[in-house]
Amino acid sequence: MKTKKILCTLMAVMCIGTAALTGCGSDSDSSTANSANSVAAAQTNESVDVTAVADKLKDGIEFKDELAELDEAKIEKIIGISADSYTKAKVYVSSSGGTAEEIDCFEAKDADSAKAIADTLTARVESQKKVFENYVPEEMTKLGDPVLVTNGNYVYLCLSNDNDKAKEIIG
């Protein structure tokens, strides 16, 4: 039993490390950013607090795993998005690395940054698919149908088992 726990912990650490390395320097294919799995909303002038949206997603959706908030440095290291491309952000990831559950909410500095953030998040989903397909195949359901919304300078990604609720909260 102890060996099993050690192996699970090592696998989780390897997944997080692989995701961090894969997310950092990958060129994303623009065709994946326009996939049928992403949801795009029209541009709006409405001001949104992305940190509040992230918290509503975390509190309003039932996640299998505990979600851990990433600070600015870890957002750049793990997700691959540098702080100079956004004005506000809140990111939660699976604390154990055993699920693909994740919440990413960004207010980009401008339209170009919003597109770059959306492309990076799309590439992250693709990277996570490679990690989880053999590690925890059940997580492929979330990764195969991510909620990815770009609305003006706001970009949201939610990987959960309740896409309808996620879309409702994001708006």
Structure explained in plain terms:
This protein has 171 residues and is an alpha+beta fold. 49% of the residues lie in helices and 19% in strands. The chain contains 7 helices and 6 strands; from the N terminus they run ααβαβαββααββα. Strands 1-5-6-4-3-2 form a 6-stranded mixed β-sheet, sandwiched between helices. It is globular and about 35 Å long. Residues 1-45 have low confidence and may be disordered. Residues 1-19 form the signal peptide. This is DUF4358 domain-containing protein. Pfam families: DUF4358. Keywords: Signal.
- Measure the end-to-end span: 45 Å
Please tell me what the overall shape is.
globular
**Portion of residues within helices:** 40-55%
The structural class is alpha+beta
**How many strand elements?**
6
Q: Radius of gyration in whole Å, from Cα?
A: 15 Å
The portion of residues forming beta strands comes to: 15-25%
Low-confidence stretches: 1-45
Spatial sequence of strands, sheet with the most strands: 1-5-6-4-3-2
Number of helices: 7
- Main beta-sheet strand count, sense and barrel state: 6 strands, mixed
Helices and strands, in N-to-C order? HHEHEHEEHHEEH
Mean pLDDT, rounded to whole units? 82
